[in-house]
Design goal:
The chain is of the alpha+beta class. The chain contains 8 helices and 19 strands. It has a single domain, classed as Collagenase (Catalytic Domain), CATH 3.40.390.10.
């Protein structure tokens, strides 16, 4: 199976037997992703950027530093994730999205505020994180999001991981089919997300203030949208009163049995990780403070679709699968992983140890199970198909439609994407196992901004 992406980040699934690729042998040289540098970084005036949804190709180009000392340039767009009611209170927080100039498959998220600046480059070389938090005029540029991410390189996910000895190759219906069951990318669905930010999280990843916490949350939502828009046709926006969910030293995290101050000594569930004790508190707390949302929330009265808690004390995260609730470390990889479970996806990698594709490994597998050199993160095709399978089946089943009505989203608009026609040779070529190569695609109509991805699920050992 293959997916094809356009410059706006939405995609169409194409039948395997009508896609044509040129096979190019190319050696991949892995690089260390632990490199961190500190450098100056000028933020240009972006007031003239068009909206990401405008359909206009932006002529505002901005360059971003990388840990290797080079820069990457992007066409910049406004991509607001903060509703007007909240933006009026925190007007200095602005979010932007960039599309790669040299490589249109690459993306950048940029968030600026009076508190600090935070950016993330999503590229085939790995995710690059840029921030001047606590650095004044110097920016930290690294493949590691934070010291927390560096110290916990292999986070633990609370959703059960099957052992490598029990690899599943027989998938449910509509997963891995030559002919996709559901249309994808024909619309953009927007979901409102509510994030409970504990005092410890606010202090760990921001400057300890409500504005700093909101800056971090806005940047995270903008970063999540880089992946969700491109691969799912979904996006997130914040709720209008997100600021009351950010806790500080002056407004401490709610405690008690129904709160979010458990420790490894006081949580008696599973292995004692507080995430297991706090996951079930998220929806009741949001319902009591924000209003009805999540599961069993009627569309006419629903105020939020997805809800989560951020706490650095956790070892990784845990999520409903499928469902709208999760508990997470304040970390991009953890959030996107747990949101993948929210879609209904189990842990997955592909045969040969990883997802061999343009951008690298699957975010639903661990870093240790990702192919050499595959350090980018994206959802595997099976995660995407599972998300759309759950989206369609749960909403169309009278037994579940009311419970999962949040899947309808807050808004839904047509994307007007065009499905290209492609051709693929089905025989007369072979690639030895473990031989690195690139796939180049062509289509009618042709678009240089299409991104072609593929998965290897062939269990044979020779070719």
């Amino acid at each position: 199976m293959f997916i094809i992406n356009n410059e706006k980040g939405r995609f169409k699934m194409i039948r395997k037997n009508i896609i044509s690729f040129i096979l190019l042998i190319n050696f991949v040289i892995p690089h260390s992703n632990n490199h961190t540098v500190y450098t100056s970084f000028d933020i240009m005036d972006l007031s003239g950027c068009p909206s990401l949804k405008s359909g206009i190709i932006s002529n505002v180009v901005m360059s971003f530093p990388t840990p290797h000392g080079k820069t990457k340039s992007f066409h910049m767009y406004k991509s607001s994730v903060i509703p007007r009611e909240l933006s009026d209170k925190f007007s200095s927080i602005l979010t932007y999205t960039g599309v790669g100039v040299e490589f249109p498959s690459e993306r950048v998220s940029l968030t600026v505020s009076e508190s600090f600046v935070k950016a993330m480059i999503l590229s085939s070389e790995g995710n690059v994180f840029i921030s001047n938090l606590n650095q004044s005029d110097q920016f930290r540029v690294s493949f590691n999001e934070s010291d927390l991410a560096l110290e916990n390189n292999e986070f633990n996910c609370g959703n059960t991981i099957s052992s490598n000895s029990s690899i599943l190759r027989n998938f449910d219906s509509c997963i891995g089919e030559n002919e996709p069951c559901y249309t994808m990318g024909d619309k953009l669905i927007t979901y409102r997300i509510a994030m409970i930010m504990t005092t410890d999280a606010t202090n760990a990843v921001s400057d300890g203030t409500v504005q700093g916490g909101l800056t971090w949350i806005a940047s995270m939502v903008n970063q999540l949208n880089l992946l969700w828009r491109r691969e799912l046709g979904f996006e997130f926006v914040l709720i209008p009163n997100q600021d009351i969910l950010i806790f500080t030293d002056d407004n401490l995290t709610p405690g008690g049995d129904d709160g979010f101050t458990y420790t490894w000594d006081t949580c008696t569930q599973a292995d004692g990780d507080p995430k297991y004790c706090e996951l079930g508190n998220v929806e009741p707390y949001l319902d009591s403070v924000i209003g009805v949302g999540g599961l069993n929330a009627p569309s006419e009265s629903r105020l939020w679709e997805y809800g989560l808690v951020l706490n650095p004390i956790y070892n990784g995260g845990v999520a409903q699968a499928p469902g709208p609730i999760s508990a997470n470390n304040p970390d991009y990889a953890v959030l996107n992983h747990e949101l993948g479970h929210n879609l209904g996806s189990a842990h997955n990698i592909t045969i040969e140890g990883g997802y061999r594709c343009t951008l690298g490994g699957t975010i639903m597998g661990s870093r240790t199970r990702t192919s050499d050199g595959g350090i980018g993160d994206q959802y595997s095709l099976h995660t995407i198909e599972m998300g759309y399978k759950k989206y369609n089946e749960l909403l169309n089943n009278p037994i579940y439609s009311n419970t999962y009505s949040y899947l309808n989203g807050y808004t839904s608009i047509q994307s007007n994407n065009i499905i290209p026609e492609l051709n693929v040779p089905n025989s007369n070529f072979s690639i030895p196992k473990e031989t690195p190569f690139l796939l180049e695609g062509s289509s009618t109509p042709s678009n240089p901004n299409y991104l072609f991805s593929w998965e290897q699920n062939d269990p044979t050992s020779s070719i």
